[in-house]
Amino acid sequence: MNSQLRLLQPTKPRLGLYLRPGRNDHTVFTALLAEGRAVSGLVLDARNLERHRQLRENLIGNGVHAVLDTDFMEMSTTGGTVLAGLDTFPWRRFAQATASQLRGQAGRDLAATVADSVATLDFSAVLAPTHLLADARDPFFGADRTVTAYLRAELDRRGHLDTPVFYPLAIPAASLRDPTQLALILDGLRSLDLDAVWLRLHPFGATAGPLALRHYIETGWQLGQLGLPIVGEHTGTIGLALMAFGAVGGIESGITLGERFDAQALNRPRDPRGSGYIPQPRVYLHEIGAFVSRAVARRLFQNRQMIAALGCRDGSCCREGVDSMIRDPRRHFVIRRTSEVERIGGVAPDARATTYVNDVVRRGAVLSGPAARVALELVPVQRRLERWHGTLEALLRQGQRPAPIPAVGQRIRTARPKPYSVG
Ligand SMILES: [Zn+2]
Question: Quick one: pLDDT at residue 271?
Answer without folding.
Answer: 54
